[in-house]
Amino acid sequence: MFRRLEVLVDGQARYKATLSQIDWQQLDIAIEDVDRIEITRGPGSVSYGFNAFQGMIHIFTLHPADSSRIALAAHYQSDQGRQGYASLASSREGFDQRLSLWGQRVGEFGGYHDNDNPPDLSQTKAANWQAQLRPDANNRLNVEADRNLNQQEGNSNASIQQDSEVLTNTGDHLMPEWQQENRDSEWQLRSYGIDTPLGNWALTSRYDADTVMYQHNPRWLWQADWRIDW
């Protein structure tokens, strides 16, 4: 599906042609920082990127000026899932910024997990910094920088009774953008760089389709959320 779908975050394509997929763990955004999500159906390669054959998902994040000065959030799920989030934002004359830190984890690493306790497939820790500088009424400089750390069990099959290697991967992202607005024109110059070593990720999901059996047993899950803003 995602080989024909483009995903954008604040106008930047996140589809990885080298892997022919979208790495959702390395979008480098927390759900608390999402402002809105726009979905467009139909081909749009000319407008959104070469992978937008069937549609496009565009994720917009909150502007630093629209963020709470201090925000804390925590989530816990009955399947051993937990997530924490903290952000700090400030606004001065002509300059806005926000620093967000978050992490999420499901299950536990190592050891054998029976069918009632799925193994931990991923753990993510990330930091994101967004800022906007307005030197005058017509010019704006936007900067976004983030870093993430992903850990995943090398063997995610719960039926194998052995310890599995924990694979670690890091990613860095930097995107400066300059905008100029005049009465009759608007200019925009954007550049970005993504450093994501492949490591062993490409070799962690090779299974024989004939030996994979999906369970149809229903499971009840619950989740508790807490958040406070200043």
Automatic annotation (TrEMBL):
Stretches assigned to the TonB-dependent receptor plug domain: 4-55
InterPro entries referenced in this protein's UniProt entry, alphabetically: Beta-barrel_TonB_sf, Plug_dom, TonB-dep_rcpt-like
Keyword presence, Acyltransferase: no
Domain of life: Bacteria
GO molecular function: siderophore uptake transmembrane transporter activity
Pfam families per UniProt: Plug (PF07715)
Major location (coarse): membrane
Gene Ontology biological process terms from the UniProt entry: siderophore transmembrane transport
Keywords recorded for this protein, A-Z: Cell outer membrane, Membrane, Receptor, Transmembrane, Transmembrane beta strand, Transport
SUPFAM superfamilies assigned to the protein according to its UniProt record, in alphabetical order: Porins (SSF56935)
Cellular localisation: Cell outer membrane
The protein's name in its UniProt record: TonB-dependent receptor plug domain-containing protein
Provenance organism: Parathalassolituus penaei
